[in-house]
Each structure stands twice: as structure tokens, then as C-alpha cells.
Amino acid sequence: MMRVRVGVLLIAASSALCGACATSHKHLDSRPWRESFAQFSKAPVQWVPTAVALAATPILAGVDQSLSISSVEEKVFNTKARYGDEWSMGLGLAPIAIGAAVGLTSGDSRFFEVATEATLLTAAQTQILKLAVNRQRPDRGGEDSFPSGHTSFAFGGATLLARWWAYEHEGDSLGYLLYVPAAYVGVTRLEGERHFLSDITFGAALGIFTAHMVWNAHFGDDEHPGLFGRHVDARIVPVVSEEGVGIGLSISF
Fold it and tell me: What is the domain range of residue 208?
């Protein structure tokens, strides 16, 4: 938990670097956020994992106690809490680190802005829900069990990395394999008796949903311009014709 809190502090500090971002004045406009949900609802890769995790939460809540006891006793996956902490921190902070690196090398700070904003929003929502729900942890070590912050942090980061990978590689969905280590984080919280399974599934849904919504609102798509405006892709491409071989400029909106 201490590592995650330190990570949140680092995120808050890094957010100062984009405090006066070019889109800050547009965030109060509801249109990009409405259209963000429209994009979310029409993309199965976005809404299906969120819906499955969210729907499982109330179902699992009824058997949380028995599942927690059996998971702690049997440790089927034999996970280590330390590894879960490291994966959570790595997945959660990697988008911000990559965004900062891209911004410094290319001058394009858009991913840094999105990653920072989405991660801060996920952390804030998680803490508010913890205070509001006030659920006791299975090991009785506190009353901030719901939802799992490690899990929301990990799944939010994994989703941001997957969206960035798809953006850079023409829609390639390979980045979603990062949900595997994110799920490992959740299992460590269950077998380590730090969270109930419903805490974990809701944390996953929260992280995924928030990351997609912030990404969609900023980048938009072909039908819905985001806070960054319409994406224009300009490339120099070879041109072969009867007159000879040359180069041309390809611009797509």
C-alpha cells in the first residue's frame, strides 16, 4: 500500500508538468465526454471487459467470505504480494513514463497528458469509493477494502498502454495482453487476504472504464473529434506511375 501511495504522489507531482495543457479550458465541455461514451459503447474491446467485471461484482459479493477463506488457505496460484505490488506500480506508472519520454523526444505530449489525467482520476475515484463504502478488509487490517486500488491502478495502466500501442501500430490489439499481469495483481490481493474478489473485479472495471473514457474524450475517432481535435496523419509515400517513380504526400483525417 505504501508503494501505491508513493506512486500516487509521484503522479500528482508529474501532473504539474501539464497543468496548463492546451486542452484544459475544454474539459468542462460535456460534448467530448458524451461522445467518449458513444465510442466506448460501440467498441467491444472496450465495453466487454468492463461489463463482465462490473456484472461479476454483485454476484461475487454474496460469496466473498467463502471465496476469500478458500483462496487464502489453498493459494492455487501461489502468488507473492511483493510481485503484485511491483506489477501494480509498473503498469500504473509506465504510461506516464512513456508519455513523458515521447513528449521530450518528439514534442508530442498528448499521451503524457492523457496518461496522467486518467491515472489521477482513477486514483481519486478509488479513494472516494473506499471512504464512502468503508468495507472491512478480509484480514481486518482496515476499512478501505472496496474497491481494490492496486487492481484499478494496474488495469488502468494496462488499458492506457494497450490504447497507446494500438494507436502507434494501426489498431493492433496485442497490448491488451497486459491484462494478464494486471489480473495477477488482483489474484495477489485475493490470496494475500487484502481484498475480497468483488473488490478486485470492481477495481478492474473502474480502471478499464476510466482509461478508455479519458482516451476517447481526448483523441476521439473518425466520427467524434476529441479534445485534441481531429487526427491528421501525414506521411511521405512512394508513388509509381507510367511516368516514373517518385514520392508523394499522403494526408488522412
Answer: 2-252
Residue 192 to residue 72: CA distance in whole angstroms: 7
pLDDT digits (tens, 9 = 90+) for 173-210: 999 999 999 999 999 999 999 999 999 999 999 999 99
Buried b (16+ CB within 10 A) or exposed e, 197-211: bbbbbbbbbbbbbbb
The grid coordinates of residue 47 equal 465495453
Q: Which H or E run includes 186? A: helix 179-191
From CA 116, how far away is CA 16, in angstroms rounded?
A: 10
How far apart, in whole angstroms, are the C-alpha atoms of residue 120 and residue 208? 13
DSSP state of 25: G
- Please state, in angstroms and rounded to a whole number, the distance separating the CA atoms of residues 12 and 4: 12
Spell out the residues 6+ positions from residue 213 whose beta carbon is closer than 8 angstroms to its own. 33, 36, 37, 40
CATH of residue 134: 1.20.144
Considering its fold, how many domains does the chain have in total?
1
Helices (H), 43-148: 44-61, 64-74, 81-106, 110-133
Three-class SS state of 251: strand
User: What global pTM score does this model have?
Assistant: 0.85
